[in-house]
Amino acid sequence: MSEAIAYERVGDIAVLKAQNPPVNALGLDVRKGLLDGIGRAEKEGAKAVLIYGEGRTYFAGADIREFGKPPQEPYLPGLCSRIEASPLIVVSAMHGTALGGGLEVALSSHYRIAVPSARMGLPEVNLGILPGAGGTQRLPRLAGTEAALEMITTGRHIGAAEALDKGIIDRIEDGEPREIGLTYTQELLDAAAPRRAVGEMAAPEPVDFDAVYEATLKKARGQLSPATAVRAVQAAVEAESFEAGLKRERALFTELMESDQRQGLIHAFFAERAVSKLPELEGVEPRDVSAMGVIGGGTMGAGIATAALLAGLHVVLIEMSNEAVAAARGRIEGNLQGALKRGKISQAQYEQLTGEALTVATDYAALGQVDLVVEAVFEDMGVKREVFGKLDAHCKPGAVLATNTSYLDVDEIAAATSRPQDVIGLHFFSPAHVMKLLEVVVAEKTAPEVLATGFALGKRLRKVAVRSGICDGFIGNRIMNTYRKAAEYVVLDGASPYQVDKVVTGFGFPMGPFSMGDLAGLDINWAARKRRAPTRDPRERVPRFYEMLCEGGDFGRKTGKGFYVYEDGPRGGGVPNPQVAELIAKDQEQQGITPRAFPDAEVLRRYMCAMVNEAAKVVGEGIARRPLDVDMVMLFGFGFPRFWGGPLKWADLQGLDSILADIRAYAVEDDFFWQPAPLLEQLVADGKSFDDLNKGA
Ligand code: CAA
Question: Contact at 8 Å (CB) between 616 and 679?
Answer without folding.
Answer: yes
